[in-house]
Amino acid sequence: MVYSSDTGGWTLTEHNDFSTYSISYFESTFLNNTMHFPTRYSEIVTVDMERKDWRKIKMPRGMTNEYGDVSIGKSQGRLFAWHIKDQGDYQLSIWVLENYDSGKWTLKCTVSCSKLFGTDCRENYESYSMFAIHPECNLIFLTDNKKKTLSYDMDNQEVHIICATGDFLEGLPYTPSFVEWTSDGH
């Protein structure tokens, strides 16, 4: 189902090549007039707003999404993908899509989550997640899903603690809408 703001309704849309893909609606990103959906097959399915141009973009090499642990977002007009490898040291890798046509990704940053949070993940059974990227700069937001939420500036490698009490463990990126409402509110 695809919602059209032009008609104000939902339309069932199927595409032969994409009907069997398991996509994540919660991790979708709207960029350049196109919706981007990560799939369980380590690809990103894109569809334009007219539902005419459907594409597949392979995720960066080594980034698998079998368990839905890859996220995507937009920053500075570009598509980003990130993944935390749960192999003892919890390495966060952040990639940026450089070229839609060739599917070329560039590794933007790799950092140890346990070092960012100042913990030993093997002792504390930590679980980390990156939940947002700033839309206008190289700033990411992470949580340990227990107590801390922090930001990390990828350019100067600075960490800032947002919350250390467990009161704020996740957030959603805010995207302003400049649509004018009709007088009846619909």
Automatic annotation (TrEMBL):
Ranges where the F-box protein At3g26010-like beta-propeller domain occurs: 1-162
Pfam families the record matches: b-prop_At3g26010-like (PF24750)
Domain of life: Eukaryota
Classification via InterPro entries: At3g26010-like, Beta-prop_At3g26010-like
PANTHER family noted in UniProt: F-BOX DOMAIN-CONTAINING PROTEIN, F-BOX PROTEIN INTERACTION DOMAIN PROTEIN-RELATED
Name this polypeptide is given: F-box protein At3g26010-like beta-propeller domain-containing protein
